[in-house]
Amino acid sequence: MSADAALLASARAWIAQDPDEETRAELQGLIDAASAGDPDALAALHDRFDERLAFGTAGLRGEIAAGPNRMNRVLVSQAAAGLAAYLLETAEPGTTPSVVIGYDGRKNSAIFARDTAELMAGAGVRAILLPRLLPTPLVAFAVRHLDVSAGVMVTASHNPPNDNGYKVYLGGANNGSQIVSPVDGAIADHILRVAAEADVLALPRAAFETAEEGVVDAYVAATAAVASAAPESGRAELSVVYTAMHGVGWETTRSVLAAAGFALPHPVAAQIEPDPAFPTVAFPNPEEPGAMDLAVETAAALGAELIIANDPDADRLAVAIPSATDASGYRRLSGNELGALLGWRAARLAAEAPGDGGPTGTLACSIVSSPALQAVAAHYGLDFANTLTGFKWVSRAPGLIFGFEEALGYLVNPETVRDKDGISAAIALLDLATQLKAAGSSLAAHLEEFTATFGAYASSQISVRVTDLSRIAEVMQALRADPPVEIGGIRVRQIDDLAEGFGALPPSDVLRIWLQDGSRVMVRPSGTEPKLKVYIDASSTDGSVVEREAAAAAAVAALETGMRALVDA
């Protein structure tokens, strides 16, 4: 059999076990066109069948379409059966493993979640489906609240509209954190065995449980408790605009705000309800240019003092504050700026907690996030942990009291949710902002106070999107083979290659470049998108607030120019 004939046979076999009419018809159209000699259709089949969407520590994520290199009901069914096999294999003798399953408002999320629940139950795993579409943090919370073995969240977070994904959490000693190696490899092996040996239509299915509303109520109560100030004292009311970015955040956020005693914000009406088409944004990620334009317009019309935004599955938080120098009237805080402020808040709360011997606990952030948090930890005598990228690592820092990533992810209540949570982060931020206003200050002034106390920390990021993933490997290899001796006119002091691990850090495809002036550059492939990412950080503790900010910004600008020349070529 020729390679093309084998490809067509594989595609026909896929159709035979695909329960989805839409993807069956789509794939049949490609088969018919390829059989008639259409080279584009044949290339499309090769793209879908020559490789398989890999299951890893980030679970699964990809475009919804037919074939093993896409997200679809066949692939999800294989993943569910493989995860079930892993849970049964690792369960304590005589016990029945259990799983809680959640889903957001994306295309096919509810279908993928129901398939997972039925197949888990059919395999002998106790399966509990959350009662409706809900934010991702609800699953991380429910794993601990229900004391189950694992959790599955069907979401692609802030990816393009036609993407979906599959995140896996573990209970028990993992406290509801996302999976890490070697668990991901063990689950992947089971998934591949199912794919090789089983027709998903023949896999047993059974009835599952549906969680009571009490799970949601418990999350709401626990998250409302993040606020440190009582509603009747220590707060001044703010005019706030909120957007859910066409996602699932609003209903739960509204309930938490009410429970915490905050006035409800003004919603961005066009973006407040779940809509898998994400019609008002080019890319449903509050980090992307233009994504918060409607929120800014709404805030400007109302004269709002604060904008808060969740991404579509509400595990991230973006914030914008009034700015006289920005043409729109508002400036979005970077993830590093907001992480520094929330980390400072956590440190102060730890310092104010009753007890002898001073504050205890750990502030943690990923290695690509700003060093500002380490300065806060040192100032308060707290422990500090630098982890690999991803909350699967941040959430596992011993003694954690706060963790963040520069990509708008914040973990403010580790005793409740061991993952980034845009809703609890919003409560912490509102708690801070309303107390500052009551004291005659603001978030903008608080940022200046941070610089005066800890120094100025400037950051920048370069994202190189590629169509050919081999390009990323080529750039990484070139940097390793011929490392730079200077970047943007600043001498390189040291390069740490994390490929074999470094100190306590597990192996990762990351280069960490230290400059003579103390600046830092990190280079790594994205874990969820076809991008090479470069993170640049510089700081200054010399002079006034203005002088510190100018010096840090100048170093970052020079490094960005130098790195673009290295990675954009």
Protein described:
The structure is a single chain. The strands form 4 sheets. Strands 1, 2, 3, 4, 5, 6 and 7 form a 7-stranded mixed beta sheet that branches. The protein is α/β, with parallel strands linked by helices. Helices cover 40% and strands 20% of the residues. The chain has helices at residues 3-16, 21-35, 39-49, 73-90, 109-123, 136-145, 183-197, 214-224, 249-260, 293-302, 335-352, 372-380, 391-394, 422-438, 443-454, 470-481, 545-567, and strands spanning 60-63, 98-103, 126-129, 150-154, 163-170, 177-178, 209-210, 240-243, 266-267, 306-310, 317-322, 330-332, 362-366, 383-387, 400-405, 409-411, 456-465, 486-487, 490-497, 511-515, 520-525, 531-540. The chain is built from 17 helices and 22 strands. The radius of gyration is 24 Å and the shape is globular.
Task: Please give a handful of descriptors for the protein shown.
A-D-PHexomutase_a/b/a-I/II/III; magnesium; metal-binding; 17 helices; alpha/beta; 569 residues; seven-stranded mixed beta sheet; 40% helix
